[in-house]
Write a structure and sequence with these properties.
The protein has helices at about 15-25, 60-65, 75-80, 105-115, 130-135, 150-160, 180-190, 200-210, 220-230, and strands at about 1-5, 30-35, 40-45, 50, 55, 85-90, 120-125, 145, 165-170, 190-195, 215. The relative contact order is 0.13. About 35% of the residues lie in helices and about 20% in strands. It has a single domain (about 1-230), classed as Phosphatidylinositol (PI) phosphodiesterase (TIM Barrel). The strands form two sheets. An eight-stranded parallel barrel has the order 1-2-6-7-8-9-10-11, surrounded by seven helices. Strands 4-5 form a two-stranded antiparallel ribbon. It starts with a strand and ends with a helix.
């Protein structure tokens, strides 16, 4: 069970207190959002725009000055040592700050290499080119494709063909009996299925019984209790 942006209903999302609280609650891991800065820093925040402009247009020091609660990715990895950290790189063509050169992907791969492979991570993005870039420059780093697709069997084929290790569908795409079918197909291909954002305990239990590998939740304490009570 991964805490979505940390324990975001108890502490401000994507902040060190939120991630520390997720650790205290016993979460198996956390999910976070990352952006690059102008001077090649990596900061954890959902939106690229802020009170002083776009994060990619600011230096790390400028981000710290105007958004003091925004941590670096390295700081979050330190707080979450030993847990699985789902690093979502925010980079879509229609969103502010889009980088067609995928510099953030290179920086994330480089940071993980500098840390000696000590971190348990899966690097994900809605942008397939971004996770393709991470896989290309650092094939040993687990990558997952976040998808809004309704046809998850097709999405699984794409993720597998591109060398990724996981598919991250929305919970709405796994309604009813489709969850078991998708999980079986994914596991046959050697892919994990990590589902976002699952807040109802009954849904957590249903997906656990279907065999999904992880759920991402805003309520880690409730989700964790439901997850550990499911046969999966």
């Amino acid at each position: 069970m991964l805490a979505h942006r940390g324990a975001n209903r108890e502490q401000p999302e994507n902040t060190l207190p939120a991630f520390r609280r997720a650790v205290e609650l016993g979460a198996d891991g956390v999910e976070l959002d990352v952006h690059r800065t102008r001077d090649d820093g990596l900061v954890v925040r959902h939106d690229a725009d802020g009170p002083a402009g776009l994060l990619p247009d600011l230096t790390l020091a400028e981000v710290a000055a105007v958004l003091p609660d925004v941590p670096t990715l390295a700081a979050v990895l330190d707080v979450c040592a030993g847990l699985l950290v789902n690093v979502e790189i925010k980079n879509l063509p229609h969103e502010p700050g889009y980088d067609p050169g995928h510099r953030a992907a290179d920086l994330v791969a480089a940071l993980l290499a500098e840390r000696g492979g000590a971190d348990r991570v899966v690097v994900s993005s809605f942008d397939l080119d971004t996770v393709d870039r991470v896989h290309a420059v650092s094939p040993t780093v687990p990558t997952g494709w976040l998808t809004l697709r309704a046809d998850l069997l097709d999405a699984l084929a794409v993720a597998h063909d591109h060398g990724h290790r996981a598919l991250h569908p929305g919970v709405w795409a796994l309604a009813g009996d489709v969850a078991g079918e998708v999980v079986a197909a994914a596991h046959d291909r050697g892919l994990a299925v990590n589902v976002w954002t699952v807040n109802e305990p009954a849904e957590v239990r249903r997906l656990g019984e279907a065999g999904v590998d992880a759920v991402i939740s805003d309520v880690p304490d409730l989700a964790l209790a439901a997850w550990r009570g499911s046969p999966g």
